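Here is one chain, start to finish.
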Amino acid sequence: MRAVLQRVSRAQVSVDGQVIGRCGPGLLVLVCAMQGDDDIAAARLAAKVAKMRIFKDDQGKMNLSVRDIGGAALVISQFTLAADLRGNRPGFSTAAAPDEGKRLYEAFANLLAAEGIPVETGRFGADMQVELVNDGPVTIWIDSAAG
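Its structure:
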C-alpha cells in the first residue's frame, strides 16, 4: 500500500457539498492499495503511520507521533498514487481492483483507529473535495513494501 501523509492543522472532505469527514490537528492520509497488497500490508502501513514522528516536541524537533500529540487522522482513498508516469497520460493498472482496494482502504482506516487514533474517512470511489491546512508544510510518502 502507498500513502501520503500531510501534517495538518485541520482537514475536511466533502461529497456533493456535504462535509463527510474532518479532523483537527493531526494527519491527512491519502492511501492507495496496490495489486498484491493484503491485510498484512494494511496493518504494516497503519502501524507505521501511527508511529511516524513528524510532530514537533518542546524543542521544536520532529520527535512526536500523531498518537503522542493526541491528534486525529482523516483517511482518504486515492488510487492515483498508483500512477505509472512513463508517458504523458498516467496509467493506474498497478492499483488494486476496486473491490479489493475498498476492502484494504477500510481495513487500513480500522487498523489505524485500533492504534488509538481517532479516524474519519472519505467515501471510496466518490468525487471528493479535500481541504486542508498543511502544517509546516510536512508531507511524507510511504510505501508499505519498503519496510
